[in-house]
Amino acid sequence: MRMNRFLFLLLPMFLLSVLLPYASYAAPTVVPVILRTSEAVKPGELLTVYGEYFESGITQVRFTGTTTYCPITYTDPQGHYVTCTIPAAQTAGIFTMEASNSVGWSSSFTVNAPKVDWIYNNNPWTGQTTKLVGRNLDYAEFGGTTNTLVRLVNGTNMYPATVTAVNPFSIDFVVPTCPNQGYTVQVSTNGGTSWTAYSGPQPYSTRKAGSDPLGLGVYWATNMVWTQHGVTPYGATGNGTTDDTAAIQSGIDDIKSSPGHGVLYLPNGTYRITSSLQLPAGIILQGQSQSGTIIKYDGPGGGSIIKTKDDGITLGNVGVARMTINVAGSNFPDIALRLGHNFDATVTHADTRTAAQIFVKEVTLDYTIDRAIASGQRGMGLNIVALKNVAIQNNTFKTTVAAMSASYVNQYLDISNNTFEYAGSAVHLTANYSVAQNNVIIGHSDYNRGDAHGFTVRSQAYLYNNDIRNLGNINHNDGEAIMGEPAGGGTKLYGAVSSVASKVLTVNGVTAVDWDLTNNRWDKWHLLIVDGKGMGQLNEVSALDSTASTVTVKDNWKVTPDSTSTFIVFLPLRGSVYYQNTSTNNAKGFWFYGDNIGGVIANNTSVDSEGVLANTVYNHNNKRFNISYFNRLERNIVTGYSPLSKVAGVGLRLSPEAKTAPFIFGNLAYGTDIKGNQITGVLPAPAIGNYSEAPDVNGIYAYRNTGYSQSRTISEAVNIQNNILNTLNKGITKDLNSNGLIKVGNTFTSVTVPNNDISGY
């Protein structure tokens, strides 16, 4: 009976997987609805408009108020998108356009208008810097001249800001002199001709000037107490031989008991300690200089050298600065610095985190990397579990395993200007609104101390100008320079829509890991429509009800799903940007491992690494449906090949691993732009190493390299344009799994097989 019931539940999913690709498309009764468009489109390039109610042979796209049309290249037979070409004679800039169907013309929509997705340092004082992260922020990216402006607006009052740095995805500006109040942040990329306001969930306001003596560059620095108390009166000697543990801890505890809290200041010297130093909330442990103040740990193995205690665990409000930490003997701590919450339920339940305002600045961790790891003595650098406001700046960590491993922060994490050197694990960015820039990561994978990765990224992260080298070992599945992966998240449930009543979806044929919304390690659980009406819409989930088989979402739908729609509920990796980073001699490269949506990997350099990958997987047995939606892989330079897999390229991997029913029920990928990349390989091509998830092929690719044929397409709208391919055995590899795949403007020099078309699924 239970088996029959199981088969009954799977039947709707199986039927949908077979019938949806061939379902007849009813003629629309309303004009097209626009959901989004391609970004940073130059004249002469492809533009894809995503939405609903487009019609093959009927839909047109034109510039609003003109008779200038955008010639149609492809219209989705199901009406979800249309791709056209911007006329080469069109002046570069922001385009106002409209699309038609048999009912009429849509409302006007803009292409290339600036869009601010999120703000870092959103409550600053005059003279501090705010960072904006988004899209289309530099006119030069789509053929114009850089002329980006920012202003703060309150009512009719406008305060121009000084822009200090700009690229297509980020703007830094100095807060102008203005009243301390709330503001709307507005951006213009055309010198003030038109302005776009940030309209996201983060408030922006300015505040009274505060104190930031260490130059953290964040507004919350002024919430710390910077009054200094010397450690010498508490009996610390700093002579390198006396045990200074009790003296330093006495100073910490005494400052905690005083009204205002503050800084325990350690003059230059070597402070031998034999057990952990423990920081309650309100305490900063600060040395005189990074090289001159030395904490020498000479205690038992395991545990931590510096950690939070009492209200420091739940409130945070602690910092460590300007010192070197090393180990005197052969006993190593497990984690040198352990700050914020303990590694408990707060790890898997982000909404239970409360600690905030934690920093580590100008600290050197100097461990022996090549050593045997004793049980409980991994030699990790830093672990932080917190709600928000964490800064890791200007540090040098030389650790056995992981500079910053298994850290979980909800919002606002800055990892900048550090050098991390280690043999295993990674540097973790799990926070929304996180910044990692100007860091160097040096791997020692040859020591074989476990998986070695660079940055692991979740949602809404900006990674810029990082240099990552020498990661990956043949004995491990590792070696990414930067990877966005859903480890600890992934798919919660998937199925089909029966009906929709406003924000409540009644669903059927559901496969579920669980129906629990509280177990989110980062971000919030979201619902994504992966086929049928409303495809591509993402909506935060506010309630799950397994008894009623309903999913309630937070926002109204622009296009209401219906019984043709299928969905997943998952923790998305939203809007991350990897820009102008360098990967050298890494087994893999710049990876979107799955569940990435609205991300960008652009202008990066891959030298003797695997290049750039957007990955997708469907595995019903493991309840996985890992998608890649609206991601851009653009203007990357790839030379050489991976030292392990012996391949390099840029592309989209499709891996449907369903050999029998239930077959795949939706699109793993939607809206992939592979544009302007330059790939230079070697000939003859070396023997392939079969090492990683990346397809065993060089060049550009968008195809199923593993898994099983589903006898239906599993990807939509792939634009492969203006790529330069040199000295390769294969140029562009594709199969029949992607509807609406367009190749245009690509050039080939010394490529044995320029177009490697696979005539199958």
From TrEMBL:
Taxonomic lineage: Bacteria, Bacillati, Bacillota, Bacilli, Bacillales
Limits of the Rhamnogalacturonase A/B/Epimerase-like pectate lyase domain: 231-442
InterPro entries: Ig-like_fold, Pectin_lyas_fold, Pectin_lyase_fold/virulence, RHGA/B-epi-like_pectate_lyase
SUPFAM superfamilies in UniProt: Pectin lyase-like
UniProt protein name: Rhamnogalacturonase A/B/Epimerase-like pectate lyase domain-containing protein
Region forming the signal peptide: 1-26
Alphabetized Gene3D superfamilies for the sequence: Immunoglobulins, Single-stranded right-handed beta-helix, Pectin lyase-like
The entry's keywords: Signal
Pfam families xrefs: Pect-lyase_RHGA_epim (PF12708)
UniProt entry tagged with the keyword Metal-binding: no
Species of provenance: Paenibacillus qinlingensis
Domain of life, per lineage: Bacteria
